[in-house]
Amino acid sequence: MRRAIQDFNMIEDGDNIYVGLSGGKDSILLLTALSTYRLFSPNKFSLHAITINPGQFLDKDELEKTKKYCESIDVDLHIVDTDIAEVVFDVRNESNPCSLCAKMRRGALNNKINELGGGKLALAHNADDVAETFVMSLLYEGRINCFEPKAFMTNAQITMIRPFVYIKEKDIVYAVNKLELPIVTNHCPANKHSQREWAKEFLHKLDKEIPGAKDNILGAIYNPDRTNLWKK
Q1: How far is Cα 139 from Cα 128, in angstroms, rounded to an integer?
Q2: Where do the domains of the chain lie, and which CATH numbers do they carry?
Q3: Beta carbons of 119 and 157 less than 8 angstroms apart
Q4: Which 3 state secondary structure label does DSSP give 85?
Q5: Helix 213-222 and helix 195-209: axis angle, to 10°?
């Protein structure tokens, strides 16, 4: 994580960092890692967490565990109540709910950050997400593309950072279990039924047939001379 932060100059002195905290394994570990990193980071920054309540599918008992954990690591948690689930599933009845949900969640996160005075939004996309996004872009959109480790969102006037882009999902699972971090279960009916889930399974099968295939994909993305995607 520190290497990614330094490679892409993600955190600068005096930054207000807001972690988008779904409560899943990736985001809770990102919050934990940044909480530790701030103790020895060369650039001093404040750390906060924002949880978007979609209005459905969020277990209140699990949310209480998240609140207590944030208190234990001295991080302010801001909970934003929304009707995102109702809009996506009941009003719009989306055939691809994940896309609209992600946009609405991002909007709610940006609005809350600006309401709190502005800062940077930290998201917990990991190396597996990087490879999956690349594959989905190539196969579904016909273009070589992937989200960036650091990007400025012009409309919101907020910089988004992804400090976990070098970290594999299996290592996140190991760390979360070892640290016994409180995880919020994803009760969304679209969970495990998305294009991303297909991409995950596709890469898993590909890696079995061609050992090291996923690492090669990541290597191409990480090296800007090969794909011209991520310029450090």
Answers
A1: 17
A2: 2-227 (3.40.50.620)
A3: no
A4: helix
A5: 110
- Cα-based torsion angle of the residue sequence 51, 96, 154, 231 in order, rounded to the nearest 10 degrees: 100
Average pLDDT over residues 3-20: 97
Read out DSSP for 133-200? Answer: HHHHIIIIISS-----SEEEETTTTEEEE-TTTT--HHHHHHHHHHHT--------TTTT-SHHHHHH
pLDDT tens, residue by residue, 59-79: 778 888 999 999 999 999 999
Token pair 């650039």: residue: 43
Contact between 171 and 25 (Cβ < 8 Å): no
Report the predicted TM-score, pTM, of the whole model to 2 decimal places.
Answer: 0.91
> What is the distance between the alpha carbons of residues 97 and 35, in angstroms, rounded to a whole number?
32
Q: Six-digit token pair at 99?
A: 């896309």
pLDDT in tens, 173-187: 999 999 999 998 876
**What is the residue whose two structure tokens read 């404040």?**
46
Is the CB of residue 184 less than 8 Å from the CB of residue 66?
yes
